[in-house]
């Protein structure tokens, strides 16, 4: 059974800080072939599509397309602000392994 991804309060708060919802945009999380481990995440601001899963809180949206959804089942989308940089991160229980950069994984 596929469970939808979860989005942390920290990720929604960051979207509100940058005003994504005010501009009609959402954080798109997609999975594509490539990267050093076989799959890679594409994380960007984009307009929601008709077939996207939309996760929303207080006008802020995170969207996942139907093709990427099985790869992100039960994943957690978070925002990390550390000394080395700030970025959206994905904790994916479906990933068997990932590379050091955290944007590439295998299943």
TrEMBL record:
Domain of life from the UniProt record: Bacteria
Listed GO MF terms: 2 iron, 2 sulfur cluster binding; 4 iron, 4 sulfur cluster binding; iron ion binding
InterPro entries linked: ATAP (IPR016092), ATAP_core_dom (IPR000361), FeS_cluster_insertion_CS (IPR017870), HesB-like_dom_sf (IPR035903)
One GO process term, biological-process aspect: iron-sulfur cluster assembly
Alphabetized Pfam families for the sequence: Fe-S_biosyn
Core domain sequence ranges: 6-102
Coiled-coil annotated spans: none
PANTHER family, per database record: IRON-SULFUR CLUSTER ASSEMBLY 2 HOMOLOG, MITOCHONDRIAL
Name of the protein: Iron-sulfur cluster insertion protein ErpA
Protein source organism: Pseudoprimorskyibacter insulae
């Amino acid at each position: 059974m596929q469970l939808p991804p979860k989005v942390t309060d920290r990720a929604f708060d960051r979207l509100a800080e940058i005003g994504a919802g005010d501009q009609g945009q959402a954080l798109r999380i997609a999975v594509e072939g490539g990267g050093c481990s076989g799959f890679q995440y594409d994380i960007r601001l984009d307009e929601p599509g008709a077939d996207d899963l939309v996760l929303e809180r207080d006008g802020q949206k995170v969207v996942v397309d139907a093709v990427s959804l099985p790869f992100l089942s039960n994943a957690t989308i978070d925002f990390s602000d550390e000394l080395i940089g700030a970025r959206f991160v994905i904790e994916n229980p479906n990933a068997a392994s990932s590379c050091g950069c955290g944007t590439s994984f295998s299943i």
